[in-house]
Amino acid sequence: MVVCSGLLLGGCSRGGGKKAGTGPATTSSTAAPVSAVTVRAHEYGFDAPAEIEGGVVHLTLQNDGKLKHEAVIVEAGDTPLDRLKQDLTPVVKGDGKPVPAYLHFRGGVSLVAGGTSAAATLTLPPGKYVFACTLTDADSLDPNAAGEPPAGSDRFHFDLGMVVPFTVKAANAAVMPPTDGTVVARDWAFDVPPLTPGPRTLTFRNDGQQDHSLGLAEFPAGVDAAAARSAFDQFLAADAADQPPPEGLTPPDDVAFAGPLSAGAQATFTVTLDPNRTYVFACYMADRAGGPRHAGGKGMVTYVTIPAG
Domain spanning 182-305: which CATH class is it, in words? Predict the structure, then answer.
């Protein structure tokens, strides 16, 4: 999948995350302890606890499979799984249809390669949820490989069994851990803190009323903010027209993803930022009432060039 092609829950091109780190910052020894939860993924299922303590949760996804997987936390209430999968599909595809009132998002751990693990710290109030993998087999393929993808590789993993319910009955009193800064999503803009080179753990927080995600991509060396904006505008225009991007236009490399988050939710993510590189922060969710994705339809895109250090 190329940049901004619509499978929004796992980021922009779904092939990224190559520079993402493996976990968030830890809380201090004087803070109330967070809830530590480990979920194991494989083709095509999860080994996950049926009940967890909520509040502030440190979620680890161990991928025991060969394909990329993720654990997105979706608030489901008492909705049957078959109905949930039906309702989730247009959201994942970016069809711009209204989102059912019960469906909310609490982040998770995304784009974990086979045989590796990754983690995030997030907030999770009492309720009924599912862990869902919104990736497809095609998300594990080399995007530059010749030939057509194998038949069936476009099926969402949650349709193949990677959707498991769990319940949060109680919440701890822990607070989110300190990080290297907070990226705040509003309706429809990002507030990005000052950033410096190196491995960074950041908090992504949704202060808006709409659902938001954060796809973070890095442009090649020598591309400044103006050139990055010009290139990315062309990618967004091609995506809106359901056409391939112009030939010779090099897409930015996806390096991190956070969310999706409904109003009031927050989660950490990690990324390594290179000096003198320009990054684009973009949201690929749509309004809950329907409509275009925020990056193209609402201009929810921010460009940041990292200083030399």
Answer: mainly beta
